[in-house]
Amino acid sequence: MKVLVDTSVWSLALRRKNVVASAAAEELQALIRDNRVQIIGPVRQELLSGIRHPQQFNSLRKRLESFPDLAILTADYVTAARFSNLCRANGVQGSNTDFLICGVAARKRLPIFTLDNDFALFAKHLPILLYQPKRFPASAGTGSIRHRV
After folding, report:
1. How many domains does the structure of the chain reveal?
2. pTM, whole model, 2 decimals?
């Protein structure tokens, strides 16, 4: 099964400065080897935003070119808005990009690989699946990463 990878995973995996980052990098590499990684344009934009040095920007841009963007449909934006409203009504806040990730993942029936604890809160109210990494050490502090059916 393909997996929609959130910005938080990409970002940490690219840095690899601690146990969680190393585990994220290993899990992401395994998904890449298995041709299971999916990305959407807004995640690509978040990853490339804020890079000050053109060489670093171009290097990352080229690395990410291996992963074509999943198409985002008008219906995904509508679903994202509905998800945002539903979560907000239940006291849960999130970004537009996070809810768009949820909308696309729900339509495509893809689990979301994230390190962002907000997604665990979203999953209590939304029909999304959260990907459970196999390579994370029990002490890595990834309690929010789990499956939701």
Report:
1. 1
2. 0.88
